[in-house]
Amino acid sequence: MSLKLQISEDMKNAMRAKDSARLGTIRLLQAAIKQREVDERIELDDSAVIAVIEKMLKQRRDSIAAYESANRNDLADIEKFEVTVLQTYLPQQLTEDEIKQILETVVTETAASGIKDMSKVMAAIKPLVAGRADMGKISGLIKTRLG
Fold it and tell me: Same domain for 80 and 16?
């Protein structure tokens, strides 16, 4: 089953269960997917849907940090719930060891020797970990490894 169909089915199930919080998050996700399809005049495949989900997750994480710094834990809790719902549509996340192993392979393949080669390493590693790891975390690991 494609990811878009899974999201649609989950929306129907949330409606039947009268789970308004989950339903709201799923509707936001469907709206973001539809917006991208209309803007680019394309039909999104699973990898493009994952990219939309990752963008939404980044927005939610930024909002959580902002709300917590402003002592608005009520709003931060809503965003945290949305993060948990959105994460259910991502593929199985990589472990720290798996990420480090992929990083070492990419550094060897690209012959990266210093921090100046970071963009080369990022470009090579991104397709390997897309949707399965936080790119901010990957960036930090690359800086540590090359720096």
Answer: yes
Tell whether pTM > 0.90. no
How far apart CA 55 and CA 125 sit, in angstroms, is 18
pLDDT, tens digit, for every residue of 81-99? 999 999 999 988 899 999 9
Count of domains observed in the chain: 2
What torsion do the CA atoms of 6, 44, 132, 15 make, to the nearest 10 degrees? -30
Question: Can you tell me which residue has the tokens 């897309």?
Answer: 130
Domain assignment of residue 62, given as a range: 3-87
pLDDT tens-digit series, residues 3-53: 999 999 999 999 999 999 999 999 999 999 999 999 999 999 998 999 999
**3-state SS string for the chain:** CCHHHHHHHHHHHHHHHCCHHHHHHHHHHHHHHHHHHHHHCCCCCHHHHHHHHHHHHHHHHHHHHHHHHCCCHHHHHHHHHHHHHHHCCCCCCCCHHHHHHHHHHHHHHHCCCCHHHHHHHHHHHHHHHCCCCCHHHHHHHHHHHHC
